[in-house]
Design a protein that fits this description.
Order of helices and strands: HHEHEHEHHHEHEHEEEEHEH
CATH superfamily of the largest domain: NAD(P)-binding Rossmann-like Domain
Strand content: 15-25%
Radius of gyration: 19 Å
Helix content: 40-55%
CATH topology of the largest domain: Rossmann fold
Number of domains: 2
Bound molecules: NADPH dihydro-nicotinamide-adenine-dinucleotide phosphate
CATH architecture of the largest domain: 3-Layer(aba) Sandwich
Number of strands: 10
Distance between the termini: 41 Å
Structural class: alpha/beta
Shape: globular
CATH class of the largest domain: Alpha Beta
Strand order of the largest sheet: 5-4-6-7-10
Number of helices: 11
């Protein structure tokens, strides 16, 4: 994390995703040991179709994280022109393989592949990404066997680690995507928050966000949330990952969130930075889901 992002920020204010993810990963490693002692090594298989550079980096870090936690982590790389039928046949094989507890097909796939067909084909019990409609439903009805998508699940762990009281809080979720906003909403509702979901058609957005005790920003717009959109003392979690041009950086860009961190940190009681906030939690939660899939498979 670049030192300048957090310079002068009161440490007690920061929700440090790197540190929290480390704790989650250590707990996962202990659970892996316990499962191994019972004869099962949790295994995650990631399937990558094509060679999109960002996806390649994500996939590599998922495999590395699995291995560090003592799990089996394998990546199956398929050429970009792989027919959909071949990918579905591979998923069938992985569904039937007892050594594979979690299956993740890196999204988005190439254009000729229908992502929904892929998601539907993965056995719900191995869908550690939590995108299968069965898991979406299980999470909505609060069934513990369901898998929640890793990013919003990570946000819930961050709120808990930060000692933030969710029950009864007014939570505002900015964004209604299938992978972040909607599952975030269901997790917060199930944790007894009063939740408002905002999107591009929301009227007078700032008036809504100013009512939030907990504000979750997941819209993909760099530094969109300004200080005057935040209630003093609110807890702010920034899910956004946006590249902005920055000639002062060697790479020519830097990563910022959906929240104008420098200004909002003076208003919020607690805030997660970008980078170093939600990002590291996502992979940690993926490992956690995979270990649970392995444990549930033993019953
Ligand atoms: P999507 O583009 O799928 O969804 C964006 C949502 O934000 C939509 O619901 C959209 O509304 C809403 N929105 C867009 N512009 C506005 C606006 N001006 N005012 C109000 N609402 C708006 O994004 P994702 O949910 O996939 O991702 C959101 C951000 O989170 C991105 O920066 C992404 O990179 C990041 N991300 C980070 C992850 C992590 O691990 N930390 C994981 C996943 C995502 P509408 O529905 O009306 O179009």
């Amino acid at each position: 994390m670049p030192a300048n992002v957090l310079d002068g920020v009161d440490a007690a204010k920061l929700i440090d995703g790197v540190a929290i993810a480390k704790q989650v990963r250590a707990a996962v490693a202990r659970e892996v040991e316990a499962l191994k002692a019972r004869g099962v090594t949790p295994g995650l298989t990631v399937v990558l179709v094509g060679d999109d550079p960002a996806s390649t980096v994500y996939v590599r870090s998922k495999e590395k994280a699995c291995i560090e936690a003592g799990m089996n982590g394998q990546t199956i790389r398929l050429p970009a022109d792989t027919p959909q039928a071949d990918l579905l046949a591979l998923i069938d094989k992985l569904n039937a393989d007892p050594t594979v507890h979690g299956i993740l097909v890196q999204m988005p796939p190439p254009k000729h592949i229908d992502p929904q067909a892929v998601i539907l084909r993965i056995a719900a019990e191995k869908d550690v990404d939590g995108f299968h409609p069965v898991n979406v439903g299980r999470i909505w009805i609060g069934e513990k066997s369901g898998f929640a998508p890793c990013t919003p699940a990570g946000v819930m762990v961050m709120l808990e680690s930060a000692g933030c009281r969710v029950q009864g809080a007014n939570a505002v979720v900015l964004g209604r995507s299938t992978i972040v906003g909607k599952p975030m909403t269901s997790l917060l509702v199930n944790a007894s928050a009063t939740v408002t979901v905002c999107h591009s058609k929301t009227k007078d957005l700032a008036a809504v966000t100013r009512g939030a005790d907990i504000l979750i920003a997941a819209i993909g717009k760099p530094e969109f949330v300004k200080a005057d959109m935040v209630k003093p003392g609110a807890v702010v979690i920034d899910v956004g990952i946006n590249r902005v041009d920055d000639p002062s950086q060697k790479k020519g860009y830097r990563i910022v969130g959906d929240v104008a961190f420098d200004a909002v940190k003076n208003v919020a009681s607690k805030i997660s930075p970008v980078p170093g906030g939600v990002g590291p939690m996502t992979i940690a939660m993926l490992l956690k889901n995979t270990v649970r899939a392995a444990a549930q498979g033993m019953k």
